[in-house]
Design a protein that fits this description.
Strand content: under 5%
Radius of gyration: 28 Å
Helix content: over 70%
Largest sheet: none
Number of helices: 6
Shape: elongated
Length: 234
């Protein structure tokens, strides 16, 4: 019995480790299958909401903008203090079109980036560990440089999957942020440095993945604990 006790401990540790790896894999699947396809809607929805907030800001700020036209010093009718209001009004009219353009541009860029990443990721994996000229053959003259299993084992494949998911998520954020970035900074092309209302809003998807990962880890952790308890009883 004493001789089997260490084996039982090792078995329980191995089963717990396997369950944790499975939980991480399920969390990565949650990000790839649910969170990332949901990002375009999140950015578009919050972008449209920011535009409506900008309209209400304009309604409140109109009397103050009218006061900017009362200045008689300076050049032009509106004066230097009232000119920024025209830029903000122009931004409100252009924002719906720019939001749609940013969504289309983000989807096109993200699709192209993912396609390229999918094509070159195997090549990156095969070369990231490095190899010598002697490693190019297996002793029988067969070239095995292109065999990914020769350079990576199951553990490496798991970690590369994690990296792949993180890279795809970062590409999705950088691409779909165009829904906000293009309307917020388009006025600089006409020499305006006025700050728009949307520039001060937080990134709506900044904490989306973190909250999803925390929730999935909590849910999958309970499932893993139940499976671990069943294995322990067996």
């Amino acid at each position: 019995i004493l001789g089997l006790a260490p084996l039982a401990t090792v078995g329980r540790s191995a089963s717990s480790f396997t369950i944790q790896v499975a939980m991480i894999g399920l969390s990565l699947g949650l990000v790839l299958f649910y969170v990332i396809p949901f990002l375009p809607f999140v950015y578009f929805f919050f972008g449209a909401g920011g535009w409506i907030k900008g309209i209400f800001e304009a309604l409140v700020g109109m009397p103050l903008w009218a006061l900017g036209h009362l200045r008689i010093d300076g050049e032009g009718i509106p004066g230097p203090k009232g000119m920024d209001g025209y830029y903000l009004l122009l931004e409100i009219f252009l924002r719906p079109i720019l939001i749609i353009f940013g969504l289309i541009a983000g989807m096109a860029i993200f699709t192209a980036q993912v396609q390229i990443l999918h094509e070159v990721f195997d090549l990156v994996i095969e070369n990231v560990a490095g190899f010598t000229q002697e490693d190019m053959t297996d002793g029988t003259g067969t070239n095995i440089v292109g065999d990914a299993s020769y350079l990576t084992g199951p553990l490496n494949n798991f970690f590369y999957t994690v990296i792949y998911t993180l890279v795809v998520y970062m590409m999705a954020l950088s691409a779909f942020k165009l829904v906000d970035l293009i309307p917020n900074h388009i006025l600089r092309w006409i020499g305006s440095s006025v700050s728009t209302f949307g520039e001060h809003t937080q990134d709506p998807a900044r904490n989306l993945v973190r909250n999803a990962m925390v929730g999935s880890q909590a849910a999958f952790g309970q499932l893993g604990g139940a499976l671990g308890g069943l294995m322990g009883r067996n």
